[in-house]
Structure formats: C-alpha cells, structure tokens
Amino acid sequence: MKNVVIVISCLTMAHLSTAQTTGADEIESTIEINPAATLQYEDSVFTLVDEQPTFEGGLTSWYNYVFTSIKYPQEAYKNDIQGKVFVQFIVNKEGQIRNPVVLKGFNEACEKEALRVVANSPDWQPGKHHGHLVDVKMVLPITFKIN
C-alpha cells in the first residue's frame, strides 16, 4: 500500500511542477525589460559583490597597517577611554579609499583618528561583480584599547 501512495504522490507532484512551469512560461513571455533599468556598473556602489576588495596581504595586513599608523589620542589615553569605531568607506574601481565616515563611535578624538588612518590607507585590490571592477562600500571596526 505504501508503494502505491508514493507513486501517486510522485505523479501528482510531476503534474503540478509541469503546470507551474507552463504558468511561469506564460508570465515570462509577457515581461518586458526596460533598457534604462539595466545594471549600471559605472555609477553604482555595491555592498554585495562576487569578489570583495582586499587589502594587500589580507585583513591581517590591514590591521597591522592600522596598528602601526594609529596614534591614540592623548586625552582619551589619559582618561582610559576605550572602544570601537566603525568606519564605512568605499573602495573604488581603482582600489582607492573614498568617503570614509564614522557609523558608530564612542569618542570624538578617537573617531577623527580612525578616519585619518582609513583615509590615508594604501590602495586596495578593488572588488569585482560579474567580472567588472566596481565600487564597493565596506564597514570595518577599529578598536582603541589600552593594554
């Protein structure tokens, strides 16, 4: 009895999937593509891409760059002020950092220092999407910690 039920279920599923395919074909034939709405790689800033931008040597090298470049603000250091600054920036098609902004911070002096370090970053390898070099928006944390 179980075999019969399984066969009937499979035949019913096959019929439904055929009916759904036919319906999809009918709908698809009525869709028109607007050429003005096609993806423009030149003017777009992406957040999800096939290949993310990379710093020469990877994220470990990025954080080494940050560690060697950062100057802990004296007032924050004296007052034992610690935390994370989340910096958003764009890695453009040429691999240059553009438009760094603080998304979340904890101290104005530390935020300014994080922006300075990111803005002066060496070039990155640009991101790619569908084989095209594209501008990519990224967010990375910079931690200020006193040991």
Polypeptide structure, described:
- It contains 4 helices and 7 strands; from the N terminus they run H-E-E-H-H-E-E-H-E-E-E.
- It folds into 2 domains: 2-31; 45-144, TonB (TolA/TonB C-terminal domain), CATH 3.30.2420.10.
- The strands form 2 sheets. Strands 1, 3, 4, 6 and 7 form a 5-stranded mixed beta sheet that branches. A two-stranded antiparallel ribbon has the order 2-5.
- It is elongated, with a radius of gyration of 26 Å.
- With 147 residues, it is of the alpha+beta class.
- The N and C termini lie far apart (72 Å).
- The protein has helices at residues 2-30, 58-69, 74-78, 108-119, and strands at 45-46, 54-55, 83-91, 97-104, 124-125, 127-129, 132-144.
- Helix content is 39%, strand content 27%.
- The longest helix is centred in the N-terminal third of the chain and has 29 residues, at 2-30.
- CATH H-level superfamily title of the largest domain: TonB
- How much is the average pLDDT? 81
Number of helices: 4
> What's the shape?
elongated
Topology, please?
Blueprint: H1 2-30, E1 45-46, E2 54-55, H2 58-69, H3 74-78, E3 83-91, E4 97-104, H4 108-119, E5 124-125, E6 127-129, E7 132-144
Parallel strand pairs: 1-7
Antiparallel strand pairs: 2-5, 3-4, 3-7, 6-7
